[in-house]
Amino acid sequence: MRSNPYPSDQPALPRLARLRAFDHVARSGAMSTAAHFLHVTQPAVTRAIRSLEDEVGTPLLERRPGGSFLTQDGLIFARRTQRFFQQLSAALAATIGADAQSDAVTRLSRKISDVHIRSLIAIWKSRSFRGAAKALDVAEPTLHRPARDLERLVKTPLYRRTLDGIGLSPAGSELARRFALSVVEIAVGFEELAAHQGSAQVKTTIGVLPLAPKRLLAIVAEELLRVHPKSRLVIQEGSYDELVVSLRSGASDLIFGALRAPPPFDDLCEENLFDDPYRIVCRRDHPIAQIPSPKTSDLRKYNWVFPTAALPRRAVLDTIIAEWRLSPRVQIETNSLGALIADLMVSDHLGLLPREYIDIDDRSDLAALNLRVPHAPRIVGLTTRLDWLPTSFQSDFLTVMRKQSAVQKSRPQ
């Protein structure tokens, strides 16, 4: 068994004719049934599956007098192949405004090739035909042929002229995102096959919000990797909007941090891990930090480092200032956590941060005031795709994260 044979910047996608043949034999158990459904000869189905087995580097089917039966590796790959075609049908259905189970979508799906999918994803990632052609190392007219053929098949404008040349329309971008998400299933299938053979790493990409308790994540990662030493965690910090884009395109597997409750898209779901109340913070030698139990009136002589308006903390701070009649003067406003901490350390300004960032992440240079913030605590949890099917490595990550989070959940507010 060899690892994914595709370069990391290209979709891990075999020819769709091979995947279709395998999918139908896997579900029917017979080469002849698959050949009849696909309107090809039985030898053509046999050749397609043998080519796919050569590509993945392991037998997927065992041929016996009673039919064709999935091997253990075949069971692994069949599950991902079936999900790939489900995602593909859903993508096409959304584009043409039809039901995913309709005959129209079934007929259209049979006409889609791996070249169509690769081309659209490349244009989406590169933001133009010119950039996509360069990324794929083909002439631009060569890219235009499958791109325009796909547009003809779906009968929907997929492209528009931009400052960088010809790029994707909103419909084209959404179809490309859904195509990318479907290809993830096949890429994960390659990884699961490699893991089953013990010959390669399994990778999980976690999007982390800036104020997520990273020490907790580190504890989870170390415990997990002791059990899965060949696997790999990729941890990428970013804004919520950036991480949602990555998650919905399949570039990442989950988001760790404060939940939005509800999430902004109906294809996402959230899991509550524990509450994380806000705390008023300052430098440890700040005058107000020396008061054991400060009152709200003690805060009135100090100004704040304000979060920018787009951050959830800003609405909380605005409410506190209004209710407690504190100084509303805005001298510094930032979305940078580093800038906030730096200013608190050299001034008498106050700030607002979640408890877990201060306590778990050992911010020994900060002090949290013994003063309850009159606001519902934010909720730390996991955001995933609604139809996500985790690998065994990812399932173990969830198990360890839930166990460690239970410890935090038991802490007093």
UniProtKB/TrEMBL annotation:
Keywords: DNA-binding, Transcription, Transcription regulation. It comes from the Bacteria. The keyword Transcription applies. GO terms for molecular function: DNA binding; DNA-binding transcription factor activity. InterPro entries: HTH-type_LysR_regulators, LysR_HTH_N, LysR_subst-bd, WH-like_DNA-bd_sf, WH_DNA-bd_sf. Gene3D superfamilies: 3.40.190.290, Winged helix-like DNA-binding domain superfamily/Winged helix DNA-binding domain (1.10.10.10). Residues 14-71, 116-169 form the HTH lysR-type domain. Pfam families: HTH_1 (PF00126), LysR_substrate (PF03466). GO terms for cellular component: cytosol. Belongs to the LysR transcriptional regulatory family. This is HTH lysR-type domain-containing protein. It comes from Pseudorhodoplanes sinuspersici. The lineage of its organism: Bacteria, Pseudomonadati, Pseudomonadota, Alphaproteobacteria, Hyphomicrobiales.
